Amino acid sequence: MSSSLRKLRIAVVQLNPKLGKVQANIQRARELCSKLQPQALDLVCFPELAFTGYVFDSASDIEPYLEEPRLGPTSQFCSELAKRLHCYVLAGYPERLSRAEHAPNDSLRSFSHLNGANSAVMYGRDGEWVANYRKTNLYDTDITWAKPGTGFATLELPLPLKKLSLGICMDLNPEREKAWSWETGPYELADHCVNTKTNLLVLLNSWLESPEGEEEDGHDWDTLRYWAARLQPLWVKDGISGRNLPPGSPNDTIVVLCNRSGHEKGKTFAGTSALFKMTKGSGRPVLLDMMTKDEEGVKVWDITV
Prior knowledge:
Nitrilase/N-carbamoyl-D-aminoacid amidohydrolase; 5 helices; C-N_Hydrolase_sf; Nta1; protein-N-terminal asparagine amidohydrolase activity
């Protein structure tokens, strides 16, 4: 093995949170992570809206669970865990909008009925705040309460993480009501990864099970195939029509999809958190590992990068 290669160590926590039971969900996460050892990991990932649950019907429904950035229970837990493990920690949470964002000016008028954002927070090795990201492409459940973000996030981090791009669930899909095709796209998130020379893409999801319902060996294969297909620019053999790779673009992209499991208000989540290696021009994505659909637990992956 070349001396330039090293291990990237990632833990994915596939949770089955109970709606509105924030402290109980955090305690469950703490129990699941109790055997993780300090300095044994580079990154720990939790799903979208990890500790609140996902299916809130309105702005008033989610209001009691909105969290102040850097101060709420998700931030406190992530900071604590990051400091204990001496690694980076990512988790989704419902961010409370600031008073300024509720101000009645023209630029914000279309969002005046919204009270939050579907966000993700990252904490660093010493428990310090690193970044906050807001979901850009909102799902039906989100649009009743969440203000959309302004674009995908890419972070420059120490080795072996390097250049990490972050998305939340529906960010993987085309923009709402936008015409697209498998042949030409658009593939917004994958194109962002190519253009920013991303080597690690992390998606925090609360992705529902596939309506086709193909399940084999406890995995949601339809969902897994769809995730990979929406990232075609990172692996398709002949490229996507009209796209050229920027100079110096990395050949390989590691893709981490951290989904949740369980049921809420008649909805079933796909679980099947997965790890891919995608090599540009290879013609196929390589599935390195995955979890089952109904599993709740921690999966630790060591990847050579």
